[in-house]
Design a protein that fits this description.
Helix content: 10-25%
Shape: globular
CATH architecture: Sandwich
Largest sheet: 6 strands, antiparallel
Number of domains: 1
CATH class: Mainly Beta
Strand content: 25-35%
CATH topology: Jelly Rolls
Order of helices and strands: EEHEHEHHEEEEEHEEEEH
Mean pLDDT: 94
Number of strands: 13
Distance between the termini: 13 Å
Low-confidence stretches: none
Length: 216
């Protein structure tokens, strides 16, 4: 495990990106709007651990909605399930905690704090090279930290950028969703598999991994 200020690389796990690419090619017909899918899943769930009542904004980027179209969650596919089984979360990942993020060329995910996810474990699928990085920002003095909040009106990249991380294409990486972050996609479509950690913070995961109890 390689630990950095706001991201971790789990170099104990070598994931098969070619297998994920083949899987994605089979399920990309189930592509749908991310915000619409998340709002529907939230309405269908009998319980919610969200600390706010905000809805996801629609029309921004896409995901794979196999649950909505053939009643099969992403987590149920074997290439995904075997990756889920490599991690020992305090609360096991549920179906809604595993998704795919699809950013069109040129899409900008403005600086924000995540909706309800403390940290995310990412498996890049596409592109094969030159994937846009994740950018981490310090909170400006005139702004206050808030979950599910955007910070575009306060952030000045030349002043507030901490660093950018270009994701490993061999090992899963975890980023801190409680820190302001964003992505400025380039001219390539960006497709990442994501595991959402809602019940453990970035530092909780690191401590559990250091103790040898997080990775299987």
């Amino acid at each position: 495990m390689k630990i950095f200020e706001h991201h971790v690389i789990f170099d104990e796990i070598l994931y098969n990106r070619e297998e994920l690419k083949q899987w994605y090619d089979q399920v990309k017909e189930f592509r749908n709007d991310f915000g619409s899918v998340m709002n529907r899943l939230r309405d269908e769930s009998s319980s919610s651990n969200l600390s706010h009542n905000k809805k996801f904004q629609t029309g921004l980027f896409d995901t794979i909605d196999s649950k909505g179209q053939i009643d099969k969650h992403v987590i149920e596919y074997e290439p995904i399930k075997k990756l889920v089984d490599r991690f020992n979360f305090d609360v096991p990942l549920q179906a809604q905690d595993v998704d795919v993020l699809i950013y069109k060329p040129g899409y900008v995910f403005h600086p924000h704090v995540d909706f309800h996810m403390h940290c995310g474990i990412m498996f890049p699928i596409l592109p094969d090279e030159d994937a846009a990085p994740i950018d981490f920002y310090r909170i400006p003095s005139e702004a206050q930290w808030e979950r599910a909040a955007g910070y575009s009106r306060w952030i000045k990249p030349e002043r507030d950028l901490i660093y950018s991380y270009y994701y490993s294409l061999e090992y899963p990486s975890m980023f801190n969703g409680d820190v302001i972050h964003g992505v400025k996609n380039n001219d390539k479509e960006r497709v990442f598999l994501r595991f959402k950690c809602l019940n453990m913070t970035f530092h909780d995961v690191i401590e559990k991994a250091k103790n040898g109890n997080f990775l299987r």
